[in-house]
Amino acid sequence: MKRVAILISGGGSNMVALANSMIGDHPARPVVVISNDPKAGGLAKARNLGIATAIVDHREYPNDRNAFEGVLHATLEGYKPDIVCLAGFMRILTEGFTARYEGRMLNIHPSLLPKYKGLHTHARALEAGDAEHGCSVHEVTAALDDGPVLGQARIAIEDGDTPDTLASRLLSLEHQLYPAVLRRFAIGDRAPVYLPISEPIP
Ligand code: GRF
After folding, report:
1. Are residues 11 and 77 in the same domain?
2. Whole-prediction pTM value?
3. Residues 175 and 130 occupy one common structural domain
4. Does 14 sit in the ligand 1 pocket, CB within 6 Å?
């Protein structure tokens, strides 16, 4: 059974979707939810799901990213994760940290990578006049939002869409995509997942 740590910074809706998917014959289980923000709403959701939680507040290490990452790593290792899922985690991780989880750390990013790495992805897709938008699950490597893509979900951009309407329509697809990718990733299957797909998601 693979042990999954989930890192959050906010509401944790992707964390909830991942946690709720890891049941029955799923090859993985959540072992901890860690937030860099003590006020993250996702912490209470994790506790309600019976998942251990921890806080590593980046504000306690001002201008010392290495110190923050050192505590984050030590906290993570206390739970012996096989896989780390970044889910709405808003801190940029250095190469020193990502190298420790090479090949076993995932992230969900709200764009059709390689387009729109970084922030404000919905506004950028709208400004570009794109016909469609989407989200991507990728392996985390040293470069931001740059690792191998393991899954993507697409939505059409509709007239009148705003960054907020796009974000909320996309979020429900994120909640399908991330669990679908994690289930395959946990058994070593790196074949990309594209939504919508014909067969039902296991
Ligand atoms: C989502 O848009 C996700 O794509 C991005 O963070 C946002 C919030 O996610 N990574 P969550 O509700 O905290 O999971």
Report:
1. yes
2. 0.95
3. yes
4. yes
